[in-house]
Amino acid sequence: xxxxxxxxxxxGLVNIPIKLHAATEDKGIKLRNLHHKCxxxxxxxxxxxxxxxxxxxxxMIKGYEYISGKYVILxxxxxxxxxxxxxxxxxxxxxxxxxxxxxxxxxxxxYFMSANEGGAKSYSLFREAIKESNKIAIAKVMIRTKxxxxxLRVYNDVLIMETLHYPDEVRGTEEVLSPQDxxxxxxxxxxxxxxxxxxxxxxxxxxxxxxxxxxxxxxIQTKLQKEKDITAPTTGxxxxxxxxxxxxxxxxxxxxxxxxxxxxxxxKKASSS
Length: 273
What we know:
By secondary structure, the protein is α+β, with helices and mostly antiparallel strands. The chain contains five helices and eleven strands, in the order E-E-E-E-E-E-H-E-E-H-E-E-E-H-H-H. It is 31% helix and 27% strand. The N and C termini lie far apart (85 Å). InterPro entries: DNA_bd_Ku70/Ku80, Prok_Ku, SPOC-like_C_dom_sf.
């Protein structure tokens, strides 16, 4: 499994060397944009609209747009001191809370955590302590250029880290239309609760599939097979390997030549008589 980050968990005076791995993957089928005329993939270039020049990463700097078209320019030398070198490699445990205290709206990305070299004992200790406490750890970690709030917990006997949105990143609900003054009768609520009861089951993730993706995969495979059928040579006979194909071609050529020779002899004999 690909490692995307290496560091350690700071748990009091205990240091746990770990590696992070992406726990999920996007299985969505990515379709390329092609030129209709020649089916060539469209190229997206970094072009300055002012200078009308294509630019490289080295030509770019960071800037914050405070009003439309106006920027505060921030150099790499100015940004670097804002990062603590040690925090770049450490997951700092801050608190422990109950899992159900965190609303799912705060959850962002999930990562598996594996023990790095020399960390097997401390990793196991931390995992077992969390399992027995029935709590999860609140932590902070710097990934790339963002200081993330995260939770550490156990899933299938593996430590995982789930990054969280900060409270100011979760939008308020004030502008969401949610009727409050509509009267609902007891009879209607009872019927709705009966329907919920009828649909209540145990959550089994494998029961749910991405039907659109499966149908798209089937469509692609069907069209791909048609393309193969069109471009494949049609000999009318099964050809299992190159040698048999060559031998079959030789035999057919001999047969064709033999028929042509016989035809010529018959034509010559008919004309002489």
